[in-house]
Amino acid sequence: MLSCQTSTSLVAATYPVTATYTGDANDNGGVATGASFVVTQAGTSMTESAAPATIAFGMQDTLAAAGLPGDATGTVTFASGGSTLCVATLPAMSCLTASTLPPGTYPVTATYSGDSNYTGVIASGASFTVTKEHGHAHRAGIARHDRVWHHRHGFGRRTARRRKPAR
């Protein structure tokens, strides 16, 4: 029995095999067909993270995946509650959330799309919290206070000048 090794760079697929014997002084050559072998996608695993764990409203958070093979292609989609937060296109392994996320806690699920060589995978467990940004509320209160003070003290009012009656 004769054997050989295949290339290590074959992508996942079914490969037909044709064996050809050229013959020698004692035996005639021949061709054998009908055999095949299958290269399957390699399994993958990954972890995900959100850093920092708490951000103020108006800020962005970094969502990241780790553990995928270095030659993997495709995307990692980070979502919370069915809504996409951001998408990283490999080889990038992280992306930023929008700065407009309302205050609340966001449990994150990362989904790797998979490619011709690697299976897709889902990771969960990370989360982050968006807090109310105190600065805007404070500034709004001061601005309101200033408007009230100015109004009470006669600033900012529209006043019409009275004309003296003609004599």
Protein model, in words:
- With 167 residues, this protein is mostly beta strands.
- The protein has a domain at 47-131: Immunoglobulin-like (Sandwich), CATH 2.60.40.
- It has one helix spanning 134-152, and strands spanning 13-21, 30-39, 47-51, 54-56, 62-66, 75-80, 83-89, 94-96, 104-112, 121-131.
- The protein has a five-stranded mixed beta sheet, with no helix packed on it.
- Strand 6 and strand 7 (83-89) form a beta hairpin.
- The N and C termini lie far apart (130 Å).
Helical content band: 10-25%
N-end to C-end Cα span: 130 Å
Principal-axes geometry comes out as elongated
Cα gyration radius (Å): 34 Å
Order of secondary-structure elements: EEEEEEEEEEH
Might you state the CATH topology name of the domain at 47-131?
A: Immunoglobulin-like
Low-pLDDT sequence parts: 136-151, 155-159
Count all strands and give the number: 10
Which strand order does the major sheet show?
Answer: 4-10-9-6-7
| Mean pLDDT over the residues | 85
* Structural class estimated from helices and strands: mainly beta
Strand % is 35-45%
Number of helices: 1
Main beta sheet, described? 5 strands, mixed
